[in-house]
């Protein structure tokens, strides 16, 4: 099964890495060969580590992911290698892993931020236009770090889904379309990060669907299903917060959407670091990621 998958993924890699402008004969460069090999190794690592649902996945001592049937979990170590090889910055301290499903062209990343208790009262006064303006400013700040780390700079195109907050379950959802600066991707191929968050006593989980404009509408229900499958452990829930003893985050809920006022010293820089986590699949494309899910990971249990 792994061999069959690697044949498919390597064909896609060859088409995308070796013939970026056309299918005319081109001799691959040493850098292109190295990238193909690195992604191949990363995929093999994920194949060996894949865990098929239904099962329970421990997210440290904070929460549990009740992985549904048909979904596949890739642990942090192997998932991080893959993410880096397809052009993303990964913070090992906060990154837990990836979720795939055969019906998805993209994937869902899961991270935890021990920011402290994030107050949600500012959700009542959101202005979507102001949040988008701050998000774009923060992205420009983040691009400095992206470039320094050898990651392509990105640009925010606009909202896919404006921010919404479920105050009962303490879940935040928002989504923006992104693309690499200087590229001319067709609309349906532009990158999308569909961001979902679950707030807890000491921080929050972020579950990020990474896909494209042509796939996102179909995949949103799957992302929401995974969000609802994460449960904080007793004592770690938002309702367990103890104001007299627990740490409170330096920012409110709007900061998770980019809504930080520049006048707040240090917070815009912090946001810039956070915005490095706009994931993408530049090196192999969403089509190849979809092949990965359909041809291998969702069948791991067979």
Please count the beta strands (DSSP E, at least 2 residues each). Answer: 11
Determine the number of helices (DSSP H or I, runs of at least 4 residues).
Answer: 7
Main beta sheet, described? 8 strands, antiparallel
Strand content: 15-25%
Pfam families: DUF2167
Signal peptide: 1-24
Keywords: Membrane, Signal, Transmembrane, Transmembrane helix
InterPro entries: DUF2167_membr
Structure explained in plain terms:
With 302 residues, the chain is α+β, with helices and mostly antiparallel strands. The protein has two domains: 2-90 and 98-107 and 282-299, no CATH class; 110-277, no CATH class. The chain contains seven helices and eleven strands. It has helices spanning 2-18, 30-49, 76-85, 128-148, 216-228, 267-274, 285-295, and strands spanning 51-52, 55-59, 63-67, 71-75, 95-101, 107-113, 154-166, 171-180, 191-199, 204-212, 230-232. An eight-stranded antiparallel beta sheet has the order 1-4-5-6-10-9-8-7, sandwiched between helices. Strands 2-3-11 form a three-stranded antiparallel beta sheet. α1 packs antiparallel against α2 and α1 (2-18) runs antiparallel to α7. The longest helix has 21 residues, at 128-148. Residues 1-25 and 260-276 have low confidence and may be disordered. InterPro entries: DUF2167_membr. The chain crosses the membrane at residues 267-293.
